[in-house]
Amino acid sequence: MTEENKNENIAENEKVEETEAEAIFAEGDDIEEGSSEEARDAGGQDPAQVKIAELEAKVEEMENRYLRLQADFDNTRRRARLDLEAARKYRAQDLASDLLQALDNFERAIKIEADNEQTKSLLHGMDMVYKGLLDALKKEGIEPIEAIGKEFDPHMHQAVMQVQDENFESNVVVEEFQKGYMLKDRVLRPAMVKVNE
Predict the structure, then answer these.
(1) Cβ distance 159 to 194 under 8 Å?
(2) Domain extent at residue 100
(3) Of 60, 98, 109, 151, which residue is most buried, by most CB within 10 angstroms?
(4) 72 with 126, same domain?
């Protein structure tokens, strides 16, 4: 065999080997494609699609969590604002509650009969202080509850006695033993009253 023939045989063998290698790689690709198709058929979806679905579910969960946190924050802010408004509106409640006993004592003292000028002038001074206290409380929204002649209201009146009086209609306040007071729309203390049956 000549050198040329040898070289041709080697070249032919190399081509055959390349062709066989290409065929083997092609078979491997077919196997991989078949296995991914089998994976899709077995699992129902492509692994990439499954991963996308998982990520979308996580994003949706995070959005829901964010919206809940936003709603909680808005509710907390609204509650804080309402609490602040109530604190401003009823800021005088504690002071007024403490002063009610002093007002009661002033009322009792003013009702005393004066028998001389010195007592009259003392009672007049006490009456001025009493009226000054009522004016100061009125500026803060604190006012006495009207009771006598009004229909009994369990929210504003505390009935301690019942009587039968033909001069008054049924369920009407006949007498007031202790004044009640309102702070704007809130009852500080109900009026202690006698009610007609």
Answers:
(1) yes
(2) 90-196
(3) 109
(4) no
Side chain identity, residue 106: F
The token pair that represents 162 in the structure block: 């019942």
Do 39 and 119 fall into the same domain?
no
The whole model's pTM is what?
Answer: 0.57
Q: Is the pLDDT of residue 113 over 60?
A: yes
Q: Tell me whether residue 34 is exposed, middle or buried, using C-beta atoms within 10 angstroms of its C-beta: 0 to 12, 13 to 18, 19 or more.
A: exposed
What tokens were used for 109? 């003292």
CA 160 to CA 57: how far, in whole Å? 67
- CA-nearest of 178, 191, 157 to 107 is 178
Query: What's residue 90's pLDDT?
Result: 79
For 151-160, the pLDDT digits (tens) are 888 889 988 9
- In this prediction, residues 74-93 reach a mean pLDDT of 87
